Structures are given as structure tokens and as C-alpha cells.
Amino acid sequence: MEAFYILLFLVAFLYASVGHGGASGYLALMAIYGIAPAEMKPSALMLNLFVSMTSFIQFYRGRYFIWRLFLPLAIASVPMAFIGGMINIDAGLYKKILGVLLLFAVFRFFFYRNARADEMKPFNMPIAVMIGAMIGLLSGMIGIGGGILLSPVLLLLTWTDQKQTAAISALFIFVNSLSGLAGQFTQGIAFNSNMMLYVIIAFAGGLAGAYFGALKFKQTILKNVLVVVLLLAAYKLLFTKA
Fold it and tell me: Structural domain of residue 226, as residue ranges?
């Protein structure tokens, strides 16, 4: 399990450095180590709460946060995340959906460049509400905060640059994780027995990652490690019966 804890720290570090809570990475690790889906969802959301808030504080202090875009996204997503948290889906289907979402994480880290100032576009309120609602529902069902889905959308629509995306995603993840966790509590919840240790390690990684978020040149090796983990987990979830 020592390797698990090291990777847990690295996942929290890297995700926090780009404004994410890390749920997709935590779920990937737990899938590789055979942790039951019933424990994976609440455990990932709990870790999200600590890491995403740490990341948000750092990016907010850097003045990258945009309230007028965050609010329509969050207002639509929070109630849907609660509903999603109340939905129990078949374990096999859960693994397939999660496997696909892990591939989103890979694309997020490698294939989105920062938009130039002259490429930025004003956001569309109705579309923002629709995006928030859809991501919120899926987030609650799967046990993620939704940042790994929101970030590529914001960047593709050129509504925000990378640091603005990180700031918005961090708080978006926090409120959705809280809402999804509340929804899961209504159906009964089971945390892994090592939950407290997970929190301590992920929180430490999140603190370091959020602090060093701007030093991208130091993240290349960590990013490669994380992508290997995500791809291994996606393969296991999509193509094996484990």
C-alpha cells in the first residue's frame, strides 16, 4: 500500500495545481487497488472537499476567480449533484462510465492550450446553466466534483483562460462534492477504513500542489506518472472484469 499512498499524494498535488479536487485520480487509484465502488464514491468526494478548497483559496488570492460565470454553473449543478448522489447505478455500468471519464482527465492535462486574449468570448447564460446541470447530475452519480468535465468545456468554449478555469473549477468541485455527498448520505454511505489517512495525505498533496501551481515546468514528470495511472485504471475499468 505504500505505492498507493505515494500516488495519492502525487494525484492530489497535480490536480490541485490546476484547480481540481482529484476525484477522478482517486477513483482511478482505488479501482486499480480493488476498492469496492460503494466505498470509492464517498471516499473520492470527501477527499475532493479538502483538496479543492485548498486549491480555490490559492487561485482566488491570485484574482483569477469570476463570480458571474461561477454562479449560473453552480446554481444549476448543486441540486442536480444532490439528485445524482441519491442514484445507485449498477456496478458494471458505473465502472464503464468512470473509465470513459478518466480519459477526459488525460485530455484535460495534455491537449488543451491556453487561449489568447483575442480568442476569449463572453459566456452564454442559458448554456452555462445547462452545462452546470448536466455535469452536476453526472458528478453526483459517479462520485466526482465535475471539474474534470467542466474544465475542458470552459477551455473549448474559450470563456476562460487556464487559471480562470482552475479558479472556477476548484469551487465548482467543492460545492458539487458537498452536494453529492449529502445525496449519498440519504441512501446510506460507507467510507474506507483508512479514510482519515487518505484525507491527511491528499490534503498535504493539495496544499503543495496549490502553492506550486504556477510552476508548470516542474510538473512534467508528475503529469506523466498521473496519466499512466489514469490510463491503466481506464483500461481495467473498460476492458477487464476486475
Answer: 2-239
